[in-house]
Design a protein that fits this description.
mainly alpha; 3 helices
């Protein structure tokens, strides 16, 4: 008796993973490029991350208020 006997049934019932869209990769690339620019300007990874989070929060708040 093997312990792998029940794995076939469990894997068959699993839902397929969602596909990664081109838009999602574009957004991720834009965020990475913005972080890199901020890193080059500030010279610090922590400062670049904090500025990126601040800009993202400002953009999210502005989008909420414009609705």
């Amino acid at each position: 008796m093997t312990q792998d006997r029940g794995l076939g049934d469990r894997n068959a019932a699993r839902a397929p993973l969602p596909r990664r869209g081109r838009r999602r990769w574009g957004v991720a690339g834009g965020v990475a490029a913005a972080w890199l620019v901020l890193y080059l300007i500030t010279g610090s990874a922590l400062s670049a991350t904090m500025l990126l989070v601040a800009f993202a929060a400002t953009g999210a708040i502005a989008a909420l208020f414009l609705r």
